[in-house]
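Long-time lurker. I teach an intro course on protein structure, and each term I like to show students one example going from raw sequence to a predicted 3D structure in token notation. This year I'd like something fresh instead of my usual example. Would anyone be willing to generate the tokens for the chain below so I can use it in lecture? Attribution to the forum is fine with me.
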Amino acid sequence: EVQLVESGGGLVQVGGSLRLSCAASGFSCEDYGIGWFREAPGKEREVVSCISSRDGHTYLANSVKGRFTISRDNAKNAVLPQMTSLQPDDTAVYYCNALGSGYWGQGTQVTVSS
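-- Reply from a regular --
Happy to contribute to a lecture. Here you go:
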């Protein structure tokens, strides 16, 4: 069964950090570019970061540059976004997607409290 499972979300104070995980099963994560998206209440889903399938090239949205990173852990068949200096505007459900595949995870909630 093909699955993407996000984890690592939670409640954090302003300025705090979280490391999320997107673990794949049923396919090799390395074969796909992986994107992270977020959806806040009342807002459209937006792309946060991406990492390419082979060369590890990354993209970060302007709103998270300097605060978020994204990397791969091929041994765990996972992609690991690291979020630092979190702000209330980062509060959202975060989803990972194997780009071009239609595979989405179920999402993990990140809440930043002030």
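Some talking points for your students: The chain is about 0% helix and 50% strand. The mean pLDDT is 95.
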